Every structure is written in C-alpha cells, then in structure tokens.
C-alpha cells in the first residue's frame, strides 16, 4: 500500500517590495508564473516547479478527501437527478422565428435552436456538445442571429482563460464561414444590413481595449478599428438596440461610465459621444423610438433615476427626468417598448417589476408575497409588443417563467422548472431575518431549511456571502443546496454590505475605505445565527467565491474561532500584491472598487490592513478548502496557492488546509453542466465532513 502524501511545504524564496516606506517580504512570490499572458493561451508553458507544486497539492487534497468519494458520488447523483436533462427554454419570438436553447439527455452544453414563430419543427443552429467534442475545456460565449435571420455569430473559449474565438454560421446550410476572429471578449453585435459585426478585441493584458468592425468575407487583419480606449482602467463592450438602429460602445469601470453611439446602418461611421465620463457618474441607454431612456445616478440620484433625451441629441444638456430619484428605491435595469417603459427595482430588499405607460405615465407593479424571492426581467427581443417575459423563484419555489401582458395586466405561466427526482415545497421553509451589525445597521439574511430541522442550535449551517461590486445575491431557487438541506443543514445567505441589497448606500458602505464593514457584517450574521438558535459556531461553515473568497480569507483572520470550516472558491486573497501589479488584467479597472495602493499611501494602508494573504498570523485557523483554476484571468491561481502555503506555515491549529486546482479550467471552474456538479459535490462533501455528516 502506498503512503498517503503529506501536506506540501513549498520552498521559501523571499522577495521584498517597498512602497510608501513600507517593506514587505513575500516568501511565495515565485508561484506567480513569469509569463502569464502566454500561459493563459498555452498552459503547457507553465514552469515545471510551479506545476509540480500544484500537482502535489492536488495529490494531497485527493488523499485527504478520499474518504468522501462515495458521498461525492451520491451528492452528484442527487444533484443530477434534480436536473431535467432534456430541458428547453421557452422560445422567444423575433420576426418570423422564435429562438431558444435546449439540452438533450446526457449533454454537457446547450443547443441553440429556432422554430417558426407560431410553433413547429425546431432547427438546431448550434450544438455545444458537438463543438466541444474532444476538448478538455469548452465554454460557449454569445450566440446572436443576424437581423435578416440568415447567420449566427457565436463564440467559444477552449482554455478557460476567457480569450474567445468568434465564428459565423450560415443558417441555410449549417456551415461556418471562413470569417473567424480570435482574442475577443466573447460576443459581438450585427450591423443592420447583416453583412458584418462589431466586437471587442482583448489586448496582451487581457483587456478589451479596442472595438473593431468585421465585414463578412474579409480577413480579420483588415477589420476597421472603430474605437480604442487608452485608459487601462476601463472595461469596454459592444451592444445594440432591439430596433437595430444603434450600436452602443459601453465604456466603464466600477463607478463611471461613458457610451458612444454608431448608427447600425452606417458601420463605417465614427462613434458619437453621448456624455463624457465624469468620476462616479454612471448611465445606461435603452432606445425608445425617437428618444433614449437613460438610467443614471447623475445629479445626486444615488439610487438612480430614469431620464429621456432625443436620439438626435442625447447629450446631458437634454436630459429630462421621467422617473425621478427616490432614496431607498434602487432602479436596477430598464427596457423600453413602443408603448411602455419597464424597470426592475429593489425596495426594502425585495425586487419588483414596474410597468409605466409612455403616453400618460401611469404605473403598476408586478410583485409577489413570499418573504424572500427573486425576479428576473427577460424583456423581449421585439420592440412593438405588449408582452414582456420575466422569471420568478424563491429558495423553496422552482423557477417559473411568465409572459405578462402590459395592457391587460394578465400573466401567463409558460414554464415551471421541473425537478425529475421530485420536490415538495411544503417540506421546506424560507425565511428572511435581519442580523444586527456592530454599528447598528441590520443585515438581511435569507434562510432555507427543512421543515423537520430542529432550531435548537444543533443543526449545521452553510453560510454564503459575497459583498462586492454592488452585486446583490438573489433569493432564488437552488437545487444543489437541497442536498445539504435534506441532510439537516440550514442554508443561509448573508446580504452584506458591498452589494446593493439595501440600495446604493449599502454598496458604498462596503467598498474602499469602508471595506471592513463587509467582513464585520458577515461575522455579525454568524453570531446572530448562533444567538437565535439556528446553529452553533462549531457547526457553522462559511463559503464564498472570487471577491466572496476574499471575504472568506478576511473572516478567517478576523474570527477563526467562529467557523468550523471555510470554503473559498477562486478566492481573491492576495489583494495587495494584485492591486500593486498594474499589468494584470483586472487591476486598473478594479482600483475604483478597492483603491489604488500604487498612487495612494492611504489606499495602501487600508488594503494592507485586511488583505487576507498579508494578514495570516499565528492563529488557530479552522479547516479551509481553497479552489483555483489554472487559466483564471480574474483571480489568478497563485493567489490561493500562496495563501494555503502561508496558512499551513503559520497556523497554530492542527487543521487541514486543502488546495484543489483545476488544471484545465479558469474562473468558472469545470465547463459543462454535469462536470460543474462534480465540483459542487466536492465542496459539499467537505462541508458535510466538517459537520460530521459525511
């Protein structure tokens, strides 16, 4: 019998860095590949010493989790059993056709199809499984039919590094044209004549810095440069109006936006600026015929308002309020139709859809009665229609899709998510409670548990958190969580500061100099769940990913004794080093979110004060599972690798620290709907093992 591998103890190779008069030493800086730009495109170029270390970590975690193999198979089987394998979306009408996506039994990837508008035989336009055959990793990007319905623009990533290749399919014969464009952001927008498309190209540092126009039948090397963004701190994307009148070039960071317009029927024209970027001012357009409806926080509208301006003169000097700012009511998105303006807003922590008649301004809302629920505004591909489509779910209610007639106010249920293995909503309880934070704020918490679960503190609990970028975590149906809930877990989501769950101020209070509020909120929720009897600290497992993984690292340093275990997926834990490296893909655009420690000593000190990797100390840490993707351009693999090495070096406890690196994937983990379930089963098996239920 072979010996079990021991925990890797990587070599220390001290590297010092001095900024603002402060010198830090990083013993594990060598884990950062010297040429990540090349490695993301060709993982075989990873240095042998780094690869050997990651493989040693993978061997160690496989050994430590070997006793959960049967459990993982059971969990995977359960989660797969809740998926209708031969599922289909409700086709969305557009002109003579209706378009949708579907899966066949056993398929990892979707198919894109269309059928006659009024129903009939479906034609498969693109088969994801066929395109991804024999690839270790494959992820479809966008798929957009041309205005004349003759072609399909589609993208794919076969490394996990999010460098997408675009292709064009002739829908008359199912064959791809010779037109191919590499190193793109994953999607594009057709010109009105269907003879070409606009797309963003990624530069060597994985930033979408240029927008090009590609004319069908020409080489991509001859594509016309439409716009180039020279500020590395801004993201850029391309979109279009449903009337096919305009192309939108959207330029933004996390707090500032700028839009430039082209007429879709004149692809050779130069983009026209709508409103010049102003720090901390955001705006977004939707076309309403001869006017634009503009969602903005301009003029002190912290929770956003909607203004209108003529399409012929959309500058800020012509903005007129349509839906005025109302503090505490966050307008999330909007969409215009010939006779209606529709918005998705959040108030008192819950979403609702509001329909406004353009003729007289009369409004009515679509809302639901559960304590916690999620709404998704899908809108319509068409402009001249009275019908919008939206989705509804809650932690106990599977997703439902409705068509809603804005004129008659009647809703039609089109589809309810089917759970093949069965689901009885009455067996589960959804709650929304408020946890007091140290500064007097109250933090919303969404709970899901089985009706038979004792609420005397004996139940284990998985507490999930994110808290960044203004992203609100929806109270939606999660079939995977049922595998924990059915085993006696309380599944909790902490809607902490850094998201916009309680309005824009909730976001402001959890970013930059106020970032530690995010961590304090999470710990306060953990304390409250224990205080009111939902769980105990020795049965409480924390989980978060990406920026939520940074949250995991921070609370591990702040209050390790309050968690029985921690799961950190692709965790952003080396915050200070990453924000000091302006060559990395996301660093300059992220400075508005976290601060710029290169330019500002104050920002440096703030980040240094909470950066998880920099604050690992001689403490009794709980068991921690970290997950990484080798080609992840968002949170590079070396962040969790360095973090785990330092935890293992400094922790005073006997806890196990595991690093699982997917050597064939990026930020999103394994591609394909079933391969992804294997990773979730692994995470849940870790939680169940910690809770003594493995």
UniProtKB/TrEMBL annotation:
<feature type="region of interest" description="Disordered">
    <location>
        <begin position="1"/>
        <end position="21"/>
    </location>
</feature>
<dbReference type="InterPro" id="IPR029058">
    <property type="entry name" value="AB_hydrolase_fold"/>
</dbReference>
<dbReference type="Pfam" id="PF00326">
    <property type="entry name" value="Peptidase_S9"/>
</dbReference>
<feature type="domain" description="Peptidase S9 prolyl oligopeptidase catalytic">
    <location>
        <begin position="476"/>
        <end position="693"/>
    </location>
</feature>
<protein>
    <submittedName>
        <fullName>S9 family peptidase</fullName>
    </submittedName>
</protein>
<feature type="compositionally biased region" description="Basic and acidic residues">
    <location>
        <begin position="9"/>
        <end position="21"/>
    </location>
</feature>
<comment type="similarity">
    <text>Belongs to the peptidase S9A family.</text>
</comment>
<dbReference type="InterPro" id="IPR023302">
    <property type="entry name" value="Pept_S9A_N"/>
</dbReference>
<dbReference type="GO" id="GO:0006508">
    <property type="term" value="P:proteolysis"/>
</dbReference>
<keyword id="KW-0720">Serine protease</keyword>
<dbReference type="InterPro" id="IPR001375">
    <property type="entry name" value="Peptidase_S9_cat"/>
</dbReference>
<feature type="domain" description="Peptidase S9A N-terminal">
    <location>
        <begin position="10"/>
        <end position="416"/>
    </location>
</feature>
<dbReference type="Pfam" id="PF02897">
    <property type="entry name" value="Peptidase_S9_N"/>
</dbReference>
<dbReference type="InterPro" id="IPR051543">
    <property type="entry name" value="Serine_Peptidase_S9A"/>
</dbReference>
<dbReference type="GO" id="GO:0004252">
    <property type="term" value="F:serine-type endopeptidase activity"/>
</dbReference>
<keyword id="KW-0378">Hydrolase</keyword>
<dbReference type="InterPro" id="IPR002470">
    <property type="entry name" value="Peptidase_S9A"/>
</dbReference>
<keyword id="KW-0645">Protease</keyword>
């Amino acid at each position: 019998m072979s010996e079990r591998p021991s925990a890797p103890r990587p070599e220390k190779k001290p590297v010092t860095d001095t900024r603002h008069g402060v010198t830090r030493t990083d013993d594990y800086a060598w884990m950062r590949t010297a040429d990540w730009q090349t490695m993301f495109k060709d993982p075989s170029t990873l240095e042998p010493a780094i690869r050997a270390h990651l493989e040693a970590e993978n061997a160690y975690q496989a050994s430590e989790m070997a006793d959960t193999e049967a459990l993982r198979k059971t969990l995977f089987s359960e989660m797969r059993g809740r998926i209708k394998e031969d599922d289909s979306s409700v086709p969305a009408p557009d002109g003579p056709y209706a378009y949708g996506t579907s899966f066949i039994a056993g398929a990892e990837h979707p198919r894109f199809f269309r059928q006659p508008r009024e129903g009939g035989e479906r034609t498969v336009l693109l088969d994801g499984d066929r395109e991804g055959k024999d690839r270790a990793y494959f992820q479809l990007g966008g798929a957009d039919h041309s205005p004349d319905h003759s072609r399909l623009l589609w993208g794919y990533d076969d490394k996990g590094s999010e460098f997408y290749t675009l292709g064009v399919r002739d829908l008359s014969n199912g064959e791809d044209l010779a037109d191919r464009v590499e190193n793109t952001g994953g999607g594009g927008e057709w010109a009105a004549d269907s003879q070409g498309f606009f797309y963003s190209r990624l530069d060597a540092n994985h930033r979408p810095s240029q927008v090009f126009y590609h004319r069908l039948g020409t080489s991509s090397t001859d594509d016309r440069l439409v716009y180039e963004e020279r500020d590395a701190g801004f993201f850029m994307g391309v979109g279009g109006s449903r009337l096919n009148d305009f192309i939108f070039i959207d330029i933004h960071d996390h707090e500032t936006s700028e839009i430039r317009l082209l007429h879709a029927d004149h692809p050779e024209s130069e983009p026209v600026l709508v409103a010049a970027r102003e720090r901390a001012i955001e705006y977004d357009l939707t076309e309403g015929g001869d006017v634009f409806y503009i969602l903005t926080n301009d003029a002190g509208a912290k929770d956003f308002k909607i203004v209108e301006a003529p399409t012929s003169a959309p500058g800020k000097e012509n903005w007129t309020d349509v839906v005025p700012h109302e503090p505490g009511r966050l307008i999330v998105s909007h969409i215009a139709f010939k006779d209606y303006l529709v918005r998705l807003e959040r108030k008192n922590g819950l979403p609702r859809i509001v329909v406004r008649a353009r003729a007289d301004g009369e409004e009515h809302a679509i809302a639901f009665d559960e304590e916690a629920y999620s709404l998704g505004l899908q809108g319509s591909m068409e402009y001249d229609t009275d019908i919008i489509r939206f989705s509804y779910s809650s932690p106990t209610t599977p997703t439902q899709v409705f068509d809603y007639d804005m004129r008659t106010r009647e809703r039609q249920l089109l589809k309810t998510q089917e759970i093949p293995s069965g689901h009885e909503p009455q067996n589960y309880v959804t709650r929304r409670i408020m946890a007091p934070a140290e500064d007097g704020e109250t933090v919303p918490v969404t709970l899901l548990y089985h009706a038979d679960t004792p609420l005397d503190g004996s139940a284990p609990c998985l507490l999930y958190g994110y808290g960044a970028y203004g992203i609100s975590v929806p109270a939606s149906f999660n079939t995977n969580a049922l595998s924990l809930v059915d085993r006696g877990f309380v599944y909790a989501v902490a809607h902490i500061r850094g998201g916009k769950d309680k309005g824009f101020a909730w976001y402001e209070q959890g970013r930059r100099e106020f970032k530690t509020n995010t961590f304090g909120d999470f710990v306060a929720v953990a304390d409250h769940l224990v205080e009111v009897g939902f769980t105990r600290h020795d049965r409480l497992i924390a989980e978060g990913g990406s920026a939520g993984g940074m949250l995991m690292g921070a609370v591990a340093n702040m209050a390790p004794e309050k968690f029985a275990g921690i799961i950190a997926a692709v965790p952003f834990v080396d915050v200070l080093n990453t924000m000091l490296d302006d060559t990395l893909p996301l660093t300059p655009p992220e400075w508005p979110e976290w601060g710029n420690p290169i330019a500002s000593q104050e920002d440096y000190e703030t980040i240094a004060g909470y950066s998880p990797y920099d604050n690992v100390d001689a403490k009794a840490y709980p068991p921690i599972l970290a997950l990484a993707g080798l080609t992840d351009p968002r949170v590079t693999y070396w962040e969790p690798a360095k973090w785990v090495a330092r935890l293992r070096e400094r922790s005073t406890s006997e806890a196990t620290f595991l690093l699982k690196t997917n050597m064939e994937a990026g930020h999103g983990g394994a591609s394909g709907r079933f391969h992804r379930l294997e990773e979730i089963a692994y995470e849940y098996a870790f939680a169940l093992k910690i809770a003594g239920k493995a």
